[in-house]
């Protein structure tokens, strides 16, 4: 065999393309092939897998067309790895030789590679500006792919969108975020850069189906594991107050787990889809109440009334059941913590107040020590002494910006506005942080 010159399998001659021209990706490449008789293919294939020519819509093992009584297959090998027989590992060559495959069975062949054979990342690497950040990642929500393109990629957005629709079969719409998240409703403006204008999506998470208009509500698929973590803390009979519930990724699975749920969101579209999803997932509506309130009003009326009724005995809670409060609005959730401080003014209720209330509050922090910064932010925001149970890094948002979750007990001291935590009860034991794994 004449040595196959090392070649790149990336598309060539397409750098700077802004209008997708699929024909431009057509090229001819000489690749090494291994000729193997049919009865030996099953033995040889496991040895050759590491050397396969791997392209989209391309079978590395194909019949050899020839006029002969014997039937053969040819195995296409990766020219970026193999140009000589000795490029195959010595141990693999020994196994091949035991199967009757020697250097004389190694040959070369010219093949055509087309647009259909390239993955989207190979196309982006060949087309987009060199030495610049490329399309580093994206989220997929149902049939929608959501991008956050850097400025230097905006001229290529139409091409990027078309390529993603071509290459990701479950995608029919590609959108690009236009600005930062609106802190009021947690949604953002976006533009469709490819595909159909259809924002209604359905996603499945934690054994529940969620349907919503992605252009009007907040949903982040990267939080699926975090939703699951919190749900693991909830037991049947527990109470959940979900202050910024969105379309219900905490609330609806919690209700399905036989928790009593009070779900709230200020966004009227989130509120509409929350109730739709509760019904679609056959939630027991006796244990599910929804509200379209500001977070402060929800805490100072719905949550407060619940506590008052507990103390009065008109609201019941099962023995050993806990009350959980989720506050997943990381851009500003800590600003609402102060409303828990001194929430109940009537000290008559203090003797009857013996409930375990756990708060899970989320925040963004920027700095070298996100754990310390997150705890400091929470302590300063609630304006009283607290004992933190757990601080957890949920995900990296951008360089040095982390989404953190701080978990603490909402004690009698805080609820009744006492100045020092030590006045009423000893500090709780810390939950072992090391057991939680960042996803």
TrEMBL record:
Superkingdom field: Eukaryota
Residue ranges of domain SAM-dependent methyltransferase TRM5/TYW2-type in the record: 138-412
Annotated InterPro entries: MeTrfase_TRM5/TYW2, SAM-dependent_MTases_sf, TRM5-TYW2-like_MTfase, TRM5/TYW2-like_N, tRNA_Gua_MeTrfase_euk
Keyword Transferase part of the UniProt annotation: yes
Annotated GO MF terms: tRNA (guanine(37)-N1)-methyltransferase activity
Protein name: tRNA (guanine(37)-N1)-methyltransferase
PANTHER family, per the entry: TRNA (GUANINE(37)-N1)-METHYLTRANSFERASE, TRNA METHYLTRANSFERASE
EC number, UniProt record: 2.1.1.228
Function text: Specifically methylates the N1 position of guanosine-37 in various cytoplasmic and mitochondrial tRNAs. Methylation is not dependent on the nature of the nucleoside 5' of the target nucleoside. This is the first step in the biosynthesis of wybutosine (yW), a modified base adjacent to the anticodon of tRNAs and required for accurate decoding. Involved in mitochondrial tRNA methylation. Specifically methylates the N1 position of guanosine-37 in various tRNAs. Methylation is not dependent on the nature of the nucleoside 5' of the target nucleoside. This is the first step in the biosynthesis of wybutosine (yW), a modified base adjacent to the anticodon of tRNAs and required for accurate decoding.
Sequence intervals crossing the membrane: none
UniProt subcellular location: Mitochondrion matrix; Nucleus; Cytoplasm
GO cellular component: mitochondrial matrix; nucleus
Pfam family name, one: TYW2_N_2
Subunit structure: Monomer.
UniProtKB keywords: Cytoplasm, Methyltransferase, Mitochondrion, Nucleus, S-adenosyl-L-methionine, Transferase, tRNA processing
One GO BP: mitochondrial tRNA methylation
Main location: mitochondrion
Family affiliation: Belongs to the TRM5 / TYW2 family.
Catalytic activity: guanosine(37) in tRNA + S-adenosyl-L-methionine = N(1)-methylguanosine(37) in tRNA + S-adenosyl-L-homocysteine + H(+)
Organism: Papilio xuthus (Asian swallowtail butterfly)
Residues reported in the UniProt entry to bind S-adenosyl-L-methionine: 227, 265-266, 294-295, 328
């Amino acid at each position: 065999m004449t040595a196959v010159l090392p070649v790149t399998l990336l598309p060539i001659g397409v750098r700077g393309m802004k209008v997708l021209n699929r024909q431009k990706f057509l090229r001819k490449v000489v690749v090494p092939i291994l000729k193997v008789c049919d009865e030996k293919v099953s033995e040889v294939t496991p040895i050759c897998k590491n050397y396969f020519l791997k392209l989209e819509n391309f079978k590395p093992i194909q019949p050899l067309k020839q006029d002969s009584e014997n039937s053969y297959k040819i195995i296409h090998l990766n020219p970026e790895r193999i140009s000589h027989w000795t490029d195959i590992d010595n141990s693999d060559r020994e196994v091949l030789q035991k199967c009757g495959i020697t250097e004389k069975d190694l040959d070369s062949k010219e093949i055509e590679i087309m647009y259909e054979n390239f993955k989207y990342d190979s196309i982006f690497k060949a087309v987009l500006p060199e030495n610049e950040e490329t399309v580093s990642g994206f989220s997929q929500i149902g049939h929608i792919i959501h991008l956050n393109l850097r400025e230097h990629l905006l001229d290529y957005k139409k091409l990027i969108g078309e390529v993603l629709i071509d290459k990701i079969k479950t995608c029919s719409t590609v959108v690009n975020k236009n600005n930062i998240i609106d802190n009021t409703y947690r949604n953002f403006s976006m533009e469709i850069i490819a595909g159909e204008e259809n924002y209604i999506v359905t996603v499945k998470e934690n054994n529940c189906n969620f349907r919503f208009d992605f252009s009007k509500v907040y949903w982040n698929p990267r939080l699926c594991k975090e939703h699951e973590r919190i749900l693991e803390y909830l037991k049947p009979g527990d109470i959940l107050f979900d202050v910024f519930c969105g379309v219900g990724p905490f609330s609806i699975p919690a209700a399905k787990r036989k928790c009593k749920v009070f779900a709230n969101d200020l966004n009227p579209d989130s509120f509409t889809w929350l109730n739709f999803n509760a019904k679609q997932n056959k939630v027991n509506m006796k244990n599910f109440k929804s509200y379209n309130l500001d977070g402060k009003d929800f805490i100072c009326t719905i949550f407060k009334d619940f506590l008052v009724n507990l103390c009065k005995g008109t609201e019941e809670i099962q023995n050993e059941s806990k009350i959980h409060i989720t506050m997943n609005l990381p851009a500003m959730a800590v600003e609402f913590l102060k409303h828990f401080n001194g929430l109940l003014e009537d000290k008559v209720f203090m003797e009857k107040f013996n409930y375990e209330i756990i708060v899970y509050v989320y925040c963004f922090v920027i700095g070298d020590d996100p754990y310390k910064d997150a705890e400091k932010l929470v302590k300063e925001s609630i304006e009283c002494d607290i004992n933190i149970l757990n601080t957890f890094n949920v995900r990296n948002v951008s360089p040095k910006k982390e989404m953190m979750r701080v978990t603490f007990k909402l004690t009698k001291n805080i609820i009744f506005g006492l100045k020092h935590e030590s006045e009423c009860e000893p500090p709780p034991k810390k939950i072992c942080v090391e057991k939680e794994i960042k996803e």
